[in-house]
Structure formats: structure tokens, C-alpha cells
Write a structure and sequence with these properties.
The protein is an alpha/beta fold. Helix content is 17%, strand content 38%. The protein has one domain (7-59, 72-123): 2,3-Dihydroxybiphenyl 1,2-Dioxygenase, domain 1. The chain has helices at residues 15-25, 81-90, and strands spanning 7-11, 29-35, 41-46, 53-58, 73-77, 95-101, 107-112, 118-123. Strands 1-4-3-2 form a four-stranded mixed beta sheet, covered by helices on one side. Strands 5-8-7-6 form a four-stranded mixed beta sheet, with helices on one face. The chain starts with 6 loop residues before the first strand and ends with a strand.
């Protein structure tokens, strides 16, 4: 039986550009790098208050990375949406949607990572 989620993998075209996005824009911690037995270049990230990892994978043998609209996304909690939006835009990644206030009082927005993966940002209700 499954006991816990360990990581989620996203395959990318440009490992260094994507690594910079997760580190510099989102503020995630790079916890390790490795090359798999089949030759995939892997970088693992962790959010400060989470146990689960995000695995960024570059494996050109699989062909081009094609991310369809509204296919998948990662969601992160942020303390201050306005501050995040300014920080992200200053690094070349403006919000792609939002911010929008929800019926529960939280604020949500989205930013696009390299290769078109969507990142949801949620500022919890006060």
C-alpha cells in the first residue's frame, strides 16, 4: 500500500533556466542533483514547509517537451501575493493570471514556469 507522496517530476527542455526559476523566482531549495542510470539529468527541489520534492528532469531522448494548456500545475502557498508578484515580474516572470479573490477570502494567481508549466499561488485568507 502507498504510504506517502515523495516527489513529482516535470520534464523540461532547459535545465538551468528551469532550475533558476524554481530557485530564484519561487524560492525553493535545491536539495540534490544527479544523473539517472538511463542518463536523465535530475534536480530536486523542496519548499520550505513541505516534505515532498519536485523533480526537474532533462531527458532529451524522450523528444520535445510539450505542455498542453490546463494540463497540470503545482500550487504553492504565499504569504504576500503583491510582494510575490513584484518579485516574480522583476525576474522576468509576470503573473499570467490574477490575482483573484476567492469566495473564501484567499487570493489566487498564476505564473508560467519555463516550458509552459503553470504554477498556482495561493495567499490564504486572513
Amino acid at each position: 500500500m502507498v504510504t506517502k507522496l515523495l516527489h513529482t517530476r516535470y520534464r523540461v527542455t532547459d535545465l538551468e533556466k528551469t532550475t533558476a526559476f524554481y530557485r530564484d523566482v519561487l524560492g525553493l531549495e535545491e536539495v540534490r542533483r544527479s544523473t539517472s542510470g538511463r542518463g536523465s539529468q535530475l534536480v530536486f527541489f523542496k519548499a520550505p514547509q513541505s516534505e515532498e520534492l519536485i523533480e526537474i528532469c532533462k531527458y532529451d531522448v524522450s523528444g520535445p517537451v510539450v505542455v498542453g494548456p490546463d494540463l497540470t500545475h503545482l500550487a504553492f502557498s504565499v504569504e504576500d501575493m503583491e510582494a510575490f508578484a513584484k518579485h516574480s515580474a522583476a525576474l522576468g516572470y509576470p503573473l499570467s493570471d490574477g490575482p483573484h479573490k476567492t469566495s473564501t477570502g484567499s487570493v489566487i494567481a498564476f505564473v508560467d514556469a519555463p516550458d509552459g508549466y503553470e504554477i498556482e499561488l495561493i495567499q490564504p485568507a486572513p
